[in-house]
Amino acid sequence: MSDKGQKVAIIIGGSQGIGASLVTAYRRQGWSVVATARTMTPTEDRDVLTVDGDLADPATADRIVSGALGRFGRIDTLINNADVYISKPFTDYTAEDYAMARSCSAARQRPRTRNCWSCDTRSPCCAGAIHSRGWTGQTGRSSPR
Questions:
Q1: Range of 116's domain?
Q2: Residue 115: inside a domain, yes or no?
């Protein structure tokens, strides 16, 4: 469980590039972090939980949220930084390439990530990019900001 007052960020796409830098930056600010991507390297930092998985699978979103609440007891911020890079012209995409690119788009992930929490604890409202709202997983209660 996170120290009282220690905020928790979920960083989707946290394995490399901007996402990995965000993990480092949030830790430097004293936040606990749940870092997730298709492939994550485990860490020895007790305030970082890594979760492997493809967000096209709803079970991955469930593992991310349950892992965050189980380890840290709250979720304050979600950063949806997931993307896939296919290094060839779009016109050369195979059906598999197109399916992978589409499964990683924000429009496809929004329904998965918005299941994390709701703005007024009654209706989902995650915009997909960055969503900050204290949440403890308790119906009708938000954690302090």
A1: 8-133
A2: yes
